[in-house]
Amino acid sequence: MKDLNEAFVHLNVGLPDDVERLKAAGYYKEAMARIDEYLAEDWTETQNSPRSQGLEMPEYEQPANPVPHGVDALRDALLVQKEIMCRLPQEYCWNEAQAVARMQGLVRDFTVEEFRQLVHEGRVDWRFVEGEKHYLDRFAETLIATHADLAARQLDPPAPATLARERRRRIHDQMEREGQASARITLKTSVGMSDEAFAAALAKAKAEGRESVHVRAWLPIPAECLAQSEIELQSFTEQPGRIADANAPQRTVCWEADLTENRRFGVQYRYKTTAVYADPLDFVPAPEQPTFDTEEQAPHIVFTPYLRALAAQLTEGITDPAEKAKRIYDYVTLNVRYHYQPAYFVQECLPDRCARNRRGDCGIMALTFITLCRLVGIPARWQSGLSVSPTGVGCHDWAMFYIAPKGWMYADCSFGASMARQGEEELRRHYFGSLDTGRMVANRAFEAPFDPPMYGFRSDPYDNQSGECEVDGVGLYGGALDTRKELVDFEDL
What we know:
Helix 12 (350-357) links the parallel strand 10 (337-338) and strand 11. By secondary structure, this protein is an alpha+beta fold. The chain has 15 helices and 19 strands. It folds into four domains: 4-43 and 67-92; 95-152, no CATH class; 163-275 and 444-492, no CATH class; 278-433, Roll (C8orf32 fold), CATH 3.10.620.30. Helix 1 (17-24) runs antiparallel to helix 2 and helix 2 packs antiparallel against helix 3. 33% of the residues lie in helices and 25% in strands.
C-alpha cells in the first residue's frame, strides 16, 4: 500500500497554470475538479499523434510514450495539492464581518477600520476562499499575543505570565551555575475521533455491508536521546499493537482495532529530562567541521534563491561556524514575529515564506534556522514534542546544530523571540545553545514515517506532537481528530 505522505517530497513540483490560478483566487472546488481531470488523463496516445489531429493513423508502428501515465512527481504533487485545497477552507474560516465580530467579542472598542488597518499592515493572515477574502482561524489569538495595546483591551484578560518568566530565570541561573538542571515528568495523552466523525464512518461502513470501522491510532511517546532517560511507559487504555523502538526518528505507540462504538486510545508515561548548559561561543571550533545534516530536504528545507541571498548576507566575512549560527539565530529571534499558523499540511516551502514575511510559529522558526544553517555548511536538524511546565503542557518545536568539537547544541528560536519581545536579553541568549527542563522529545527528524507507517494522509505529514488516527484507511484532521494532553506530575530534581 502506498504511503500517501511520501508524496509531499514532490510538493514543490508546482501546478499546471490553470490549477495554479484557480488556487490563487481561492476557487478550490473548481481547482480540485480540474486536478481530477488531470489525474484521469491517459498519455498512452500522445498529444502529437496523427489521431490527435483528426488524421488516420499511419501503418508504421508508433513510438511509445515514455511516460504513458504522466509524470509521477507531478501526479504526487496534484494528489497533495488536492488534499491541501480540501483543507484550506477550514483553516481560513472567517469572512471580514465574522472576523470583526470575533475581535469585538474579545477586545474592547474594536472597530472595522482598526481591523482593516491591521490587514493592510500584514498582521492578519488571509486567503481567497471561493473568490472572497477569508482570515485564518486563529488570527485573533495572534493579534492579542503580539500587540500589547490589544492585549490591554481584552474583555477577559488572562493572568500575567510572570511565574513562567521567573521559572525560566531560575532554571537558567541554575544551569549556568551548576552546568545542568533536571526534572521528572509524568504525562497522560490520548487520541480518538469525534463522536460525529465516528458516526459518519460507521454509517459509511454499514452502507458498504460492514458492522464496524477499522481504526489505527498513533501517539507520540518519549524517545531515548541526550536529554531524556529513565523512560517508563506506565499504563495504556488497552494493549497497543506496536511500540516503536526507543530511538525511532518519530517514536510512537500504535493501536489497531475494529470498532462498533467510539473509544479513545491513551498512554501514561514518566521520564527524566536533563538540560545541559552550553554557550556555543565559549570554545574554539575545530578547523574541520562535519558535513552530515547539511543537505536539502524537500519540500521545506530547500535552498531557494532568497534563502541563499539571506544566508550569504548574514554570514559575509565570517569564518567561525559558531558566529555564523549566532548571526542566523539573531536574525530569526529579532526579526520573525510570532504568528499562529495554518496547518503545515496546507503550506509550501515554510522557511522561504517565513524569511520573506518575517512571521511564523515555533516550528517554522526552527525550520528557517535549520535551512539557513545548512546553507552555510552547519549541520542542523529538527527536534520536537511537548513543552511542559508545572502549570501545563503544549506542543513545541526547536532546532539542533552541530559544531565540532562541542557536538550537538540547541536553538529554540521561538522562545528566544519571545524573550526578545519581553526585553529578556540574557534569556534570549540562553536559548542559543541550551534548552530548559520542560521538554518531552518524541521526534528527532522532520518528515519521518511512523513505525508502523500510516498510509492515509496524516493531519501533520511532517511532525507528530499530538497523535494521529486513520479510519478505514483515511486519515483524520481538524475537528474529526480529538487529541488530549494532561500533566500528571512535574518534579524538579
